[in-house]
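BUG: 3D viewer hangs when loading the predicted structure for this chain

Environment: internal workstation, default settings.
Expected: structure renders.
Actual: progress bar stalls at 90%.

Input used:
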Amino acid sequence: MESIPMTVGGAKALEAELLKLKDVTRFRIVEDIATARAHGDLKENAEYHAAKEEQSFCEGRIKEIESKLSRMQIIDVSKLVQNGRCVFGTTVSLMNVEDDSEITYQIVGEDEADIAQHKISCHSPIASALMGNEEGDEVTVKAPRGDIIYEILTVKYL
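Structure tokens produced before the viewer hung:
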């Protein structure tokens, strides 16, 4: 089985989600099913079918999270050698060479990636181009609309 790289924060978030699903969501769904059953005929009971479907989704998500947690490799960025290189977990500030716009990303695992929070997957084209490079380097990112050249301004190990 392949290990799943994850930051400390990402691992804590997954563990919290698992705990909530097991301790809160599961019991609420069981109560919803019991309430729907009390309404009678289950064949045409939309509430019952919706609750059963939610239960199926919840149990599937629990199994998925447990599988990921059993295979995860937690990488504590603060304990890495801080030599200015872009590696998993680092926060990188970039400048687009063409228009001088700046953007900051944290390189994280697939499950943690959230572009709205400026967290990109370590498998994304941008992260792949950045990995191993250091402050001051220029990297070329292969994008659908063409190549984009970024200069690495800072690399932080937060």
